[in-house]
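Appendix B: complex inputs.
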Amino acid sequence: MDDGHPDIQDASLVARARGGDGVAFEALVRRYYRAAFAVALGQLGTAMEAEDVCQDAFLRALERLDDCDPARFGAWLLSIVRNRAHNYRAYLALRRGPDLESVPATRAGAARVAGREGGGPPRDLARDELRDDLAEALGALSSIQREVLLLHDLDGRRHREIAEALDLSVGMSRYHLMQARRRMRETLGDEYAEEYLNG
Amino acid sequence: MDEDLHTTGDGFGNAGPHGSDEDSEMPDRIDLSALDPTADPGRFEPLVRSIAARAAGELARRGGQAAGPAIGIFDEPAIQVVRVIRGWQRVLWPVAAAITLASLATLRFIERPSTEAGSADAQLAQALGVPAYMANWVAGGDIPGPAELVFSEEEQ
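Resulting structure:
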């Protein structure tokens, strides 16, 4: 998410983007894409849908940029992502029935990891499988647990930032993170945990 | 809360996948880097380009507003009108030429009867049912001979 100019603050980028500066807007996209993706994935559970919502949310944010307090751009953007993901999720629920939380989690991820040990598949394939396993395990969490976990462990946000973005207290953010991690470990299994958890 | 001391700018700036200083407090962080959409440039760059391309219209609108209201005949709307007219030019020239040709042909057609029909007397004779050859004799002041009269009657 490094835009190459870490000293450039959001307020400056927002001001330039308001004036039609495409470079500044792109810098904001690069700076916040992962956080936006974390929130969208937390709500929706699949990367492809999360990407669609992210694209949509950034465009919506640009259209409404004049409504934004430049000093709070990040939290403001994530609230847009969250709303749009929520609406998209409701739309999907109408279209295809049960939502993420009603899909039972399995331990297939752990089994696949165990099966990989001797085979030595190409790295991309292993990464794809890992991604699938993680997505499956994330599906066993509540949306708020997923959002907190992804913002903290994927995007590196602090609890204070997460609390602001998700309208929670810092204590609740910590609680959801702890619950999410515990459940992820349970779903993924011990072998998986040894190989991939703890960073 | 010491985490606040490390916050830059607005408190919600660029974080990074492993940037949280809470890792030292919570060593059981789960490695979710496989889900990181920015980790693979081959995938991330097209995403950014796609967003930038879709944002181009709105950015251009904002850029136009930021430039302020245009003044004079060379302002943006006037230039756009000229461009539209110029675009139509290719079609308008042939259409104008066709209309001109059609107008000239019509004028010629209208003028021809008055010059070829002879005098007003001949037109009047025709209207009264007098044969044209007789009307021509009258108009020309010729006196037909008996043979001419006979042949003309036979031809009729």
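The longest helix of chain A spans residues 73-96.
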